[in-house]
Amino acid sequence: MHFFLDFLFSRHKEKKKAARYDPIELIATGGMSEVWKARDTETGGICALKYLEAESVELRHKFQKIFTADEGQIALEMDHPNVVHTFDYGADDDKYYIVMEFIDGPSLTQLIVQRDDRVTGDNRFDVLLQAGRGLTYIHSKGLIHRDFCPKNILYDSDGTAKIIDFGLSIPAASRPRKLVDMSGTASYMAPEQIRRQNLDARTDIYAFGVSAFEILTGERPFPTTSNREKKLQYHLNVDPKHVRELDESLPEALDDVVAKCIEKDPDSRYDSMTQVMRDIQRAIRGL
């Protein structure tokens, strides 16, 4: 999101400052960003304040050409129970910031690693459906997430799964090959993303399929390694496992859905998350 935020801010005569938001506690860092638990001094409410370091001027200018101010409005207007709500954005000196709903709960990755009751047994189907509904909504707004994975799904105290981190989101219609970088989480990255080719909703569908495999089985469909390059090569050259290899209690229909999501050729995948959700719901009803 920070690529088009720079353009959005440049459209305003005066850049908004983050002084309204009082940082309380640093809760996450990574790459060129940091996330704080913060207090809105005007309302007294608690929020998540994400700071993004400025990219190179050259790269920002390239991205300015493909984004419009309408995209910022889309982010602010997104309203779905399974998508974190964005409240505000602005610029503060050499950093950009985005203000989001604060979720006081673990990530889906943490729950999977802990084999928490919320992601085992029949509960895993509920989490899978929630995550799928959120991603379907994101696509319906003309965006692709580009970093969909369990670590970017938070689980709040009410049992609601919420997709977070739109730092890599871009309009689905704007995919110039030369400007697409290979940002993302290696364990969930589609082959075309690794090759820096054009991306569309099917790229997120691939990541959803890998995430679904992990939600359903507690493991990923490729060999375990901490080596990023090996992870990328697995996506390009190694056939994934099937969910029923790890859990024979899962229906074949659900196995088929996940397998189709993580086909290496985008043309062999589902065309839309709407189709994915239709078949997942049918498979779960079959249980």
CATH architecture grouping of the largest domain: Orthogonal Bundle
Instruction: Report helical residue fraction.
Output: 25-40%
What order do the SSEs take from the amino end to the carboxyl end, as H and E? HEEEHHEEHHEEEEHHHHHH
Low confidence ranges: 1-15, 61-69, 173-180
Number of domain modules: 2
- In DSSP terms (H or I, runs of 4 or more residues), the helix count works out at 11
CATH topology of the largest domain: Transferase(Phosphotransferase), domain 1
Number of beta-strand segments: 9
What does the overall shape look like? globular
Q: What integer value in Å does the Rg equal?
A: 19 Å
Q: Which CATH class of the largest domain applies here?
A: Mainly Alpha
How would a textbook summarize the main sheet? Answer: 5 strands, antiparallel
Overall pLDDT score: 83
Structural class: alpha+beta
* Percent in strands: 15-25%
In whole angstroms, the N-to-C terminal distance is 39 Å
Strand order of the largest sheet: 1-2-3-5-4
CATH H-level homologous superfamily name of the largest domain = Transferase(Phosphotransferase) domain 1
